[in-house]
Design brief:
two-stranded antiparallel ribbon, 9 strands
């Protein structure tokens, strides 16, 4: 059985027998939680490096989503032509969350007082959406979501940090914005 399909809540097995093979030097670990299901943890992961100007574009409760693509909940905003933007490390958290299939909005479940009590998605979603004051069709499915967490800790020491030449050929580094000694294009 695929570990993603192990039931959660009252239908979860008393014991979950699993063989988790982590290759020598591997960094991922899979855990099973009765309330949350299967969780994959990573260690020593490479962050996502993105241009970031300190602002975000977010999906708010009630916003329309496209369920055919991962929904980015809090996208960092920035691009290299913006003088306020810098390349910044982010941790990307990926999850699967419920959404209202008819309204194409993320569905907010009532967790502590509903879902984690009887593990009934339809009931928990109806209660959560009612509490949030949002319309709910009663028809749900699940969509992949991504959330970007800025990394202020857990970043390698400056002496070990990547430099431009780690990703770009030295002759291609012509950016004088960050590199005062960069070669100017001919």
């Amino acid at each position: 059985m695929n570990y993603l399909n192990v039931p959660i809540g009252s239908r979860s097995p008393q014991f979950v027998n699993a063989v988790v093979e982590i290759p020598a030097g591997g960094v991922n670990k899979i855990e099973y939680d009765k309330k949350l299901g299967a969780l994959t943890w990573g260690k020593d992961l490479t962050p996502a490096y993105l241009w970031y100007d300190g602002t975000r574009s977010g999906v708010l409760a009630g916003d329309k989503i496209d369920p055919k693509a991962p929904v980015v909940l809090n996208a960092p905003v920035g691009e290299k032509r913006n003088p306020e933007a810098r390349i910044f490390p982010f941790k990307v958290n990926t999850a699967v969350q419920p959404y209202d299939k008819d309204n194409n909005t993320l569905a907010i479940p009532a967790l502590a007082d509903s879902y984690w009590v009887d593990f009934d998605w339809p009931k928990a979603l109806a209660a959560g959406m009612k509490k949030a004051g949002l319309p709910y069709s009663g028809n749900h499915a699940f969509v992949e979501t991504r959330m970007y967490s800025s990394i202020h800790h857990e970043v390698t020491a400056a002496k070990k940090a990547l430099g431009c030449a780690d990703c770009h050929a030295p002759e291609a580094i012509t950016c004088t914005r960050c590199h005062q000694t960069a070669k100017q294009p001919s």
